[in-house]
Amino acid sequence: MITEIVNWFSDSANWQGPDGVPTRLLEHLGYVALALVIAAAIAIPVGLFVGHTGSGGLLLVGAGNAVRALPTLGLVTFLFLLFTDSTVAAIIGLIVLAVPPILAGTYAGLQAVDRYVVDAAVGVGMRGWQRLWQVEVPISLPLVIGGVRNAVLQLVATAAVAAYVGLGGLGRFLLDGLAILDYGEVAAGAVLTALLAIVLDVLLATAQRVLTPRGVRLAQADVRGGTKEVAA
Amino acid sequence: MSFLDELGRYLSSANNREQLLTTVAEHCYLALVPLVLGVVLAIGIGWLTRTRQSLRGVVLVLGNLVYTVPSLALFVVIPSIIGTKILDSINVVVALTLYTAALLLRPVLDALDAVPSHVVASATAMGYRPARRFFTVELPLAVPVLAAGVRVASVSNISLVSVGALIGVGGLGVLFTDGFQREYFSPIVIGIVLTLLLALVVDMLLVLLRRVLTPWDRAAAPVKVQVTA
Amino acid sequence: MRRRLLGLLAVVGLFATACGNPLEGGAEGGPTGEIVIGASDVGESLLLAQIYAGALRNAGADNVTVRPPVGGREVVVKALEDRSLSLVPEYSGNLLRYFNENTGATTPNEVYAELRQTLPAHFEVLEQAPAENTDMLVVRRELADQGIRTISDLAPGCGELIFGGPGQWGERWKERIKQLYGCEFKEIRTTDTGGPVTVEALRSDEVQVADLFSTSSTIRSNGFVALEDDKNMFPAQNIVPFVARGTLTEREVRALNAVSAVLTTEKLTDLNVEFTEEKRNPIDIAEGFLRENDLA
């Protein structure tokens, strides 16, 4: 199998044209990015609103979890029959699957803000908006980005599956190669998809760490020393 | 004809109904066997690495890596790695076992860490040797934390088995490929509904199971569960 | 705790066995073995598989299963080799081309004779049916109304047209269609194997020429026009059971030959309409077909 992969990658024809690695990679990234932006635009405001006002939170997150149980293949085939266009159907499916993790992350992030910190902010005289943007958001940022990380993983995997309903991207190598048992192409597709997912995950993990406010990082380091209680 | 009519027609065929039962049963098997195997694998790895801190880091990174690999990619590559027949459903079982184990590694390690040290100490003082202590003291106390992870893994597995239809493995996924090929809504909708129902039922069973395994929790006052992302 | 663990294991074990074990054993067939029939992605393949299954069961085989459809010929051949499958409904022309790329055979008898000669020893084909399902180049009515009825008519304009078809179409036919008809498409795009993506692409004018199949109901139902293959580029494609040698008994072979004897192109097209347009269950359709043709 290794020789087949190496052969496939060293064949220059596989790096050019509409079926080449660069095109497919960019297509895949494009779908992921587009869906992510739209999903975030929906999920983050909703999550912020619900987390800040504290109402309907459990219901929303519960509904979000239910969506996570949706089978990917079922969703994209259903949407394809509805919209008859591969790309539209796939993007909508991607957005639907990306919203729950981002929503959950945003909500959890706001929940993680210590009541005493919020209280202190009120005490200092901050109004609602100021509290939100200067205190709650920075503290919850790491968890929000955690949600985005989960979403991105879902997106890369789902975009690969959507090749079944005609979408481009790296999934094409997987499915087209499988149809003719070109193990080189299949394995190459698998490797590329996995690498993409891993690289994006590492980038976001770094972002998560970098964007943690210094104060929060110091507080976390403090806690790590002590014993943790078993959560029920 | 309206969608409900179409649905009625689909369900009126005895052969269709029979096929639904078979596919649900297959799906069940393909999702739950890896769940159990994954739990065992994760606990096994947890046991092996709890005393060797360096291995722990490596294992956690590997687990994260495995979980990051997209499902379709893993399904197609496994036959080449472990030499199974290409149409064999075991490829899905192996892949999902790996996912479950990867998902549960961190909860297992955290849960084992969280067992209060005085409890461990008293067990040792009572003469429990490490293995017995592990199975009769530390694991049971770890169940609540594990349960949350297992519930997530079960939902994930049930959802992922459908993707196996793309490599010819049975399960509810065949309803989606069939509906797609014939431009037929009914099997797809039924497939989605059944998948969600199955996830719900399994989730409830797991909650029940957890309550059975932790009788000491019932004695205390009910605790509000924290929402975790 | 030990009791609880055992109880836990018992519950899990019960649940797992209740769900059943879909892990297949071998498909070695024979008097006590299991017969596993496969199908390719094309819908009609599943229909044929169910018809074969019904015929075999009527002939007394009691362990026949039909697997869900998967992939193309390469996957199927591999599966027959390692005996994950015992038999598959196949198309004579494409099957021959798979084993001998440079074959010149075009008529049904030529193709069948050469196929029997060329097949490796561990495979065999049973008797072929008169029914054929050939590739057709299909265009929308608007294009056909410009006077284009055959592929030769299409050839001069190929350079402006985008073609949509299965993944391997380009590799198999690009050179041949250029040689024989002088047709070179502006672009050859992968849609799927005569499935909904191809139909949709043609419908929405994303591609102007598509590769669909002659018994498919979608040509008629969408008002498409199939172009005549006037220079016989596409060889005969008779339906024929492709078998891993040694997996079927004499009686079972006779049952399948009886099915092939009555399967005509019109009947097959009708079956496809029932499957794709009327959305009937394939087993229902197969049972109906076997009954109507006194094969029950």
Short summary:
The complex is a heterotrimer of chains A (232), B (229) and C (296). Chain B has a single domain, classed as MetI-like (MetI-like fold, Orthogonal Bundle). Chain B has 10 helices and no strands.
Mind explaining what this structure looks like?
The complex is a heterotrimer of chains A (232), B (229) and C (296). Chain A is built from ten helices and no strands. Chain A has one domain (2-8, 25-231): Orthogonal Bundle (MetI-like fold). Helices cover 79% and strands 0% of the residues of chain A. Chain A has helices at 2-10, 21-53, 57-68, 72-83, 86-111, 115-124, 128-161, 171-179, 183-210, 214-224. Chain A is mainly alpha-helical. Helix content of chain B is 80%, strand content 0%. By secondary structure, chain C is an alpha/beta fold. Chain C is globular, with a radius of gyration of 22 Å. The chains are: A mainly alpha (232), B mainly alpha (229), C alpha/beta (296). Chains A and B meet through helix 3, helix 4, helix 5, helix 7 and helix 8 of A and helix 3, helix 4, helix 5, helix 7 and helix 8 of B.
> Structurally, how many domains make up the residues of chain C?
2
Helix and strand succession of chain B? HHHHHHHHHH
Distance between the termini of chain B: 43 Å
- C-alpha geometry of chain B: elongated
Kindly give the count of domains of chain B.
1
Kindly list the characteristics that best describe this protein.
heterotrimer, B: 229 residues, mainly alpha, MetI-like fold, 10 helices, 80% helix, C: 296 residues, alpha/beta, D-Maltodextrin-Binding Protein, domain 2, five-stranded mixed β-sheet, three-stranded antiparallel β-sheet, 13 helices, 45% helix, 14% strand, globular
Secondary-structure map with pairings?
The complex is a heterotrimer of chains A (232), B (229) and C (296).
Chain A: H1 2-10, H2 21-53, H3 57-68, H4 72-83, H5 86-111, H6 115-124, H7 128-161, H8 171-179, H9 183-210, H10 214-224
Helix pairs in contact in A: 1-9, 2-5, 2-7, 3-5, 4-5, 5-7, 7-9, 8-9
Chain B: H1 3-12, H2 14-49, H3 53-68, H4 71-82, H5 90-114, H6 117-125, H7 130-161, H8 173-182, H9 185-213, H10 215-219
Helix pairs in contact in B: 2-5, 2-7, 3-5, 4-5, 5-7, 6-7, 7-9, 8-9
Chain C: H1 2-19, E1 35-37, H2 43-58, E2 64-66, H3 73-81, E3 87-91, H4 92-99, H5 108-118, E4 123-125, E5 135-139, H6 141-144, H7 151-154, E6 162-165, H8 169-181, E7 187-190, H9 196-203, E8 209-213, H10 217-221, E9 225-226, E10 239-244, H11 250-262, H12 265-277, H13 282-292
Parallel strand pairs in C: 1-2, 6-7, 6-8
Antiparallel strand pairs in C: 3-10, 4-10, 5-8, 5-9
Helix pairs in contact in C: 2-11, 2-13, 4-5
